Amino acid sequence: MNFVTRLIRSEIIFYSLLSLPALWPLYPFFTGNYTVLADPTKYLLHHFGFWACLLLVTVLSFTPLKVLFPKLFFLTALNSQRRAVGVASFVYACIHLGFQFLHESGWPTLVHDLRKPFILIGVLAFLILTLLAATSFNAAVRWLGARTWKSMHRFAYLAAFLVAIHQALGRKIFPKQVIWIFLPLLILEIVRLIYRYKKKTVSAVVLS
Amino acid sequence: MNLRFNKDWQLSESLVTPEKEYRSRTRRDFIKTLGFGAAGALLLPNQSSAATEGFPSKLNPNYSGKELKVTPFNYVTSYNNFYEFGMDKGDPVTNSNQGWKTDPWTVEIRGLARNTGKFDVNALVRKVGGIEQRVYRHRCVEAWSMVIPWDGFQLSKLIALAEPTADAKYITFTSFEDSKNAVGQQDSNFGWPYIEGLRLDEAQNELAFMATGVFGKPLPNQNGAPLRLVTPWKYGFKGAKSIVLIEFTQEAPLNTWQRIRSDEYGFYANVNPKVDHPRWSQGSERVIGGGVFNGRQSTLMFNGYERQVASLYKGMDLKRYY
């Protein structure tokens, strides 16, 4: 139990875990997977976008999980690593955008494509993540004040919502992965809200 | 306009991937190269025994070009869309070779024509006078491109054989339906079978081609064995694969992608760098096999076949008829 907590809290191990998804796209390049090698930029673009999205959903699920299961020891440890996961999501989003740049061969197309909802929504989500990453330092929390900082970082939910739409628009046919990525988070958040509402009414009854 | 027509159609045998370059790559050829010869061929599953009639084919020098750099065989045969076998580019090569048989294969010709009926695909190839090889550009609507040496016959030969009546204005191609072997067809939301169509005058254009092979061999299953449509001036999805029915009609068919997403895909689907896809620009394309850093080139009007096909669309608003 302490061991798991220590593992999660160990920065080296946790950061290594977070960087693994950046390493394994190298694998098909060694094994000669022709489907990947045919259009490597697209493969890398999708891979990093997928992980940026997955890490964003992961970090957003930490708090509701902790509210629902306050006694689970490793959730406390995970919550202490929220910043690392959030920043990792931003870093993957940066790489995703970088590959979009390569994929479209430069700024003119990228700017031209801003008129397309699919691209615009993705860029908006990226801008939110940039703002949150830029204010992820302790100094930023002090500077903004904890209350302002907290309400500002609730924009992460908006970012997740935009990412879900971005992903849903990404294919010709609705991609089912959007459901299995975002539905669990949605359920968690709804349960968390119900839980909080009940707690409030209970304490209100007790107080009266 | 970046078109160099005088160079486009000059003879150059060197364009086609040298035989030995792709010979050593498939398992079948690997065994042959090892010296097993005929015995080796017998040991193999009938994976590429699709429509064997007419091979080996000869390159038609009128449909080739010096600047066309052929995409390596491995990319052509392991990166493509064939939704009958899955949503991802690597799905067809895996899922279409799990026991799905493309030999024997019957194609039905039906509708407003004098000579209708059912034909064995090899017999059909004999009837139209055999096959030839043509090197065509291939431009997917998803903004990637290849250069592919197809083997097959000009579609107009098949049309001449069928003798459509004066009422026939369109030609419809219907792909196979076999949800037992084609895992993608188990998703019924798609609305199978896959349907594509051409205006009859488009179909009679010299470029419209029925492929039975690629790289001088019968089509591998994943590329639409044993018979597929190739219209190089149109986006790739117009090229219906594994065709079982060719029908002459008076009305334009509702092609599959137009039915599913009419905001993104129309009937004509002509390659046009000036008409964007709702989600990306069509002004340029990624060359398959170009690597991470230098894989992009400008897209040409009608995919570089303006001289041959532009007259078909004279006076049409190509923004509206995308």
Q: What is the makeup of the main sheet of chain B?
A: 7 strands, mixed
Determine the strand fraction of chain B and express it as a percent band.
Answer: 15-25%
How many discrete domains of chain A?
A: 1
Mean pLDDT of chain B: 87
Strand content of chain A: under 5%
Give the overall shape of chain B, derived from the CA principal axes.
globular
Low-confidence stretches of chain A: none
Treating each run of at least 4 consecutive H or I residues as one helix, how many helices of chain B? 10
Description:
The complex is a heterodimer of chains A (208) and B (322). Chain A has 208 residues and is mainly α. Helix content of chain A is 84%, strand content 0%. Chain A contains 13 helices and no strands. Chain A has helices at 2-9, 11-23, 27-31, 34-38, 40-68, 73-79, 82-103, 107-112, 117-134, 138-144, 146-153, 155-169, 177-207. Chain A is globular. In chain B, the strands form 2 sheets. In chain B, strands 3, 4, 7, 8, 9, 11 and 12 form a 7-stranded mixed sheet that branches. A 5-stranded mixed sheet of chain B has the order 2-1-10-5-6. Chain B has a single domain (5-313), classed as Alpha-Beta Complex (Sulfite Oxidase, Chain A, domain 2), CATH 3.90.420. The longest helix of chain B has 17 residues, at 27-43. In chain B, a hairpin with a 2-residue loop joins strand 7 and strand 8 (217-218). The radius of gyration of chain B is 19 Å and the shape is globular. With 322 residues, chain B is an alpha+beta fold. The chains are: A mainly alpha (208), B alpha+beta (322). The A-B interface holds A 33-42, 44, 102-105, 109, 112-113, 116-119, 169-173, 175 and B 74-75, 78-79, 87-90, 93, 144, 189-190, 257, 260-261, 264, 276, 278-281, 283-284, 286, 288-289, 291-293, 295-296.
